[in-house]
Structures are given as structure tokens and as C-alpha cells.
Design a protein that fits this description.
By secondary structure, the protein is an alpha+beta fold. The chain has a domain at about 10-75: Winged helix-like DNA-binding domain superfamily/Winged helix DNA-binding domain (Arc Repressor Mutant, subunit A), CATH 1.10.10. Helices cover about 50% and strands about 15% of the residues. InterPro entries: WH-like_DNA-bd_sf, WH_DNA-bd_sf.
Length: about 90
């Protein structure tokens, strides 16, 4: 199930947003690490990672410590999402 280019982080299910935040706070993790940190099921994490990869905010890389696993990390465009949130929370009128 591929995401469209117009789909953004706000359009994703809560589980995908949680996986995004886990990667934002902890840095690159394996799927098993994301499952442990988020306390979501492995199936839910897989689906969330697919959705995040579909909109281009998560990259999948080889985990050299164990080549059977992949390492997931936020992409450079994902930093725009986190920068937008911090700017929005800093402004108060």
C-alpha cells in the first residue's frame, strides 16, 4: 500500500506517528528495537514503517551487526516535520 506524495505525517495513523517519534528520540533502530521502545506489536510496527517509507520520512538500511535485520532512521526531509513542530510550540501571543 503506497502513500501518495500529498500524504503527510498528519494523515498517518497514530501508530505511525508513534514510530516516527520513537525514531526521532532514539535515533536509528532495528524493527525489534522499535517494537520494544513503542510497545506496539511487530505487525503494527511493520505497517507503520511501510507508511513512513511511503511518504519518504524513513529510510531502511543494512544493520551490520546482524545482516538479517534492517536499521530504520529518519531521512533529511523528516527533519522539516520536527523543525515545524518546535517553531510552532515556541511562538506564543
Amino acid at each position: 500500500m503506497e502513500g501518495t506524495q500529498t500524504e503527510g505525517l498528519d494523515d498517518l495513523p497514530p501508530s505511525a506517528k508513534l514510530v516516527f517519534k520513537v525514531l526521532e528520540y532514539n535515533g536509528p533502530l532495528t524493527q525489534k528495537g522499535i517494537v520494544q521502545e513503542s510497545m506496539l506489536s511487530a505487525r503494527t510496527v511493520r505497517y507503520a514503517l511501510e507508511r513512513l517509507e511511503g511518504i519518504g520520512v524513513v529510510d531502511e538500511d543494512v544493520y551490520f551487526a546482524d545482516a538479517r535485520q534492517n536499521l530504520y532512521k529518519l531521512t533529511e526531509p523528516a527533519q522539516e516535520f520536527t523543525a515545524d513542530e518546535s517553531e510552532a510550540s515556541c511562538t506564543a501571543d
